[in-house]
Amino acid sequence: MTRAVIVAARRTAVAPRRGGFAGIETHDLAAPVLRACLADAGLDPVQVDEVILGNALAGGGNVARLAGLAAGLPDAVPALTVDRQCCSGLDAIMLAVALIEAGMAQAILAGGVESWSRAPLRAVRPRGAEEAPVFYERPPFAPDPARDPDPLEAMAALAVRADITRIAQAGIAAASHARALAARQRLVREIVPLAGLDHDAFTRALTPRLSLRAPIVAGEGAHAIDATGVAVEADAAAAVLVLAEDLADRLGLNGCTVVAAVSTGSAPERPFEALERAALEALGGDASGCAVLEIMESTAVQFANSLAALGVEPERVNRGGGALSRGHPIGASGAILAVRLFHELLEPDLATGSFTIHTTPDGYASPPHPSLGLAAIAAAGGLGSALLIEPRR
Questions:
Q1: Which structural domain, as residue segments, surrounds residue 363?
Q2: Active site amino acids
Q3: Which pTM does this prediction carry?
Q4: Residue 99 in domain
Q5: Residue 160 burial (CB < 10 Å; 0-12/13-18/19+)?
């Protein structure tokens, strides 16, 4: 089996809905990121076999095709848009990996893009002239309404069940912003400036005390969820360039080798369990050998529960901040995790620690240093995806 190698990874900044990217069409968010990945690797656009992008809100069509053409790729390069809600961006990368490992492609641009600002209004078409269109914010994620709770209500129930207090959530949100602020200078190298924005616009100096003054959005009492504990709706794009190992060798490119990729499901009303299941399966059931983790922060409650389930120390997770300090551009969020992971693993000052290295699920023995990195995310409807990579040496 051909091994897949990620040789470049770039993203835009993340801008809150109706913020700095409000006037930019979805495909125009992605195009400069695709071009940047090719430029970083020195790959001729004619060598690209496919463009695969995740997207959840653009309302149909083929955003990946539009983005590929806008990026200047040849007309002959096909493109595919995938929708697995929040998992979409990471799943697009995992699909690229699968195609390359199967020998069906040599070079694929993959990632995700989302614009909450430009997303079309959605409505259920009337059945007859006597009815009016019914507008909606989100589609159903399970056919049984009893298994399709409002995501925030589901998180509020989890907060009570797992005893994740509002005070604990405030600390998580503040820590995410603090890590992002501390990392701002080194995040520059992964961000493609666009519309004058070269940093994540939502990140700010947030303290637990300020967090506790924010309005409650779900739940009540000691376990209530406030606005700072929920990732804001946002616009962004992120992509990686995935090559077959032999092509990467011929071009003299390093980057990161894909070790494992997992998609799985859980009860629709408990999607956070799918993240944890996918992550543990990718890790062979043990996160102790993983040096860096990028775990989605859709809410502080979900993030706290995920860390507890994986048994990892916060110091190894989201070293440059997470979605609580950036925002949540649905179809792009998983790809942003992959971009962040790629750059964290290639940081020259990566803390080595004393973690135990284990053999991964596919039997690939990792090198004698803690260089494995994991990205994991859950999606509404009880879905989860995880990607395990390591630097090429």
A1: 4-120+230-391
A2: 86, 328
A3: 0.93
A4: yes
A5: middle
- Whether 143 maps to a domain, the answer reads no
CB atoms within 10 A of CB 392: 18
Q: How far apart are CA 300 and CA 259, in angstroms?
A: 28
The CATH number of the domain where 318 resides is what?
3.40.47.10
What is the sign, positive or negative, of the torsion defined by CA atoms of 160, 275, 303, 19? negative
- Per-residue pLDDT 10s for the chain (393 aa) are 899 999 999 999 999 999 999 999 999 999 999 999 999 999 999 999 999 999 999 988 999 999 999 999 999 999 999 999 999 999 999 999 999 999 999 999 999 999 999 999 999 999 999 999 999 988 999 999 999 999 999 999 999 999 999 999 999 999 999 999 999 999 999 999 999 999 999 999 999 999 999 999 999 999 999 999 999 999 999 999 999 999 999 999 999 999 999 999 999 999 899 999 999 999 999 998 899 999 999 999 999 999 999 999 888 999 999 999 999 999 999 999 999 999 999 986 544 333 332 333 333 333 334 589 999 999 999 999 999 999 997
DSSP 349: T
173 domain residue, yes or no: no
In a domain, 355, yes or no: yes
* Rounded (10°) angle between helices 330-345 and 88-101: 60
Q: How many domains does the chain have?
A: 1
